[in-house]
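JOB MANIFEST
job_type = single_chain_structure
chain_count = 1
residues = 582
[input]
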Amino acid sequence: MSTNPIIRVLQFLRTYRKDTILTIMLLITSVAVELATPGLIQRIIDQGIAVKDTALIANTTALILLLAMLEASATIGNTFFSVRVAQSIAADLRLSLFSKIEKFSFGNLDRFQTGQLVVRLTSDINIIQMMITMGLRMFIRAPLLIGGSIFLIVVTNLELARVVLPLLPLTLILAAAFVWKAQPLFLEVQKRLDKLNTVLQENLAGVRVVKAFVRMDREAERFGKANEDLTAQFIKVATLFSVLFPTMLLIVNLSILSVVWFGGLQAIAGRFTVGEIIAFTNYLLLSIFPLLFLAIIASQVSAATASAQRIYDVIDSDPQVKNSPDARPLVDLKGRIRFEDVCFSYSGNCAEPVLKDINLTAEPGQTVAILGATGSGKSSLVNLIPRFYDVQKGRVTIDGVDVKDVTLESLRSVVGIALQEAILFTGTIKDNIRYGRPEATDDEVIEAAKAAQAHDFIIDLPKGYDADVGQRGVNLSGGQKQRISIARALLVKPTILILDDSTSSVDVETEARIQEQLEKQMEGRTSFIIAQRISTVLKADKIVVLDKGMVVAEGTHAELMKGCPIYKEIYDSQLGDGGSRQ
């Protein structure tokens, strides 16, 4: 495959071959009519007006009118089909890009910021769409007009052609210099647009935090700086245009002046007619003005090349986590999970590991609680089970099979996850709960909601389970969102259940009721619970204490109270009775 991003984009034209061919044919028709018109005007002047032949004038005028209608029809058709092709390709690119992003692992998403991906899916693809539209309407038209006009200029008057044609290479050189200069400027525009969009998205997502800490002025300053940088770059591009077009118009005017001067001298000498001067001038304009359009298109190509490169940077990125060539489905699952000498780092090597020398076993049906200070690696540990990330050393196995040797779909289909940051989607509450099992019945949805202690608040809503959820669940409280998230995880009836601090936003009483229901739901399931409240993990079959990415102790509550000072310190700080509740 070609490494040129524009060539790769244009390969999409094969999918819309018929529309593309029809677009080009209509364009050729329009150009042919446009090239024929100056000759017909010359005929009216030299053979009609000069000899007062009214019939010839009338017939030729009628022919010009018919040709004008034909050109208008061809131009309308060309515009329609070029826009349809360009929009279809843009839609295909958006789908390809979105599909690739959906396949990304968490590591890939750590590299590409959300704001950058949004700009690629919107602004960058819009620039490519505009380039294709302009290309099918003007890029092909310009060379045809230039070539046809030059041929007719030479045929009309070779001597005069020798005077004006040397100006055309100068115009081409100017356009080429513009393309060379413009491309890096357009690339920088998109980079600065990335930055602006990132600042905007952060502020929209964190507007409550901004207001709570009275940081509106600071955020306005950040946005203003990004906005000024983008504006300054756009001004650089505009400055380039402001130099290019007046210079090219100067060349056009010099060319016309040359035709009028030298053509006029020849006409006075009787070697040139007035009609030929007019036709020659029209052909000259038809050859030079397309060069101006080429410069415009060149700017579009420069911008589109930069945008296409940014798009293919994403499309060509391999997911850091993907199926191995011989991956097989995970079947007959019992749920025994082992971490064997696991080392993991977000940087891709174990020089500065987040997790180090992890050896841990969860037996089928066992509930394992993960406890530790913030940054100890709790979430990183459970993220390795469904392969959101891959280990750099050691392995994670399920029933003795390395998770890298099974298909991602089969692996993740048996894992139910509820995260601390409960992400909900626009739609209804029912839709969000059955997100992992769209075919689930209403009774199953209600059962899962009851287990997550969400049923009562849901039925109190005006539309109950059909109540609309705002963007990211903005119309629900943090605790409500977490309970819906737990219900969503339970509904898939997973063999492996992961609750990553998923009750941090609910009150203690509600959490106690959730834990009581979860004990029933966890029967027969291998479960991992991450919690900040030690009361949440007291009844776990095994409690694992992490510190600085290492397992420092594991056992039951009673065992850890006797043999793990870190655990006892956490217990005493939260419950404050020195362990009398054990």
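[summary]
Confidence is low (pLDDT under 50) at residues 578-582.
The longest helix spans residues 216-268.
exit_status = 0
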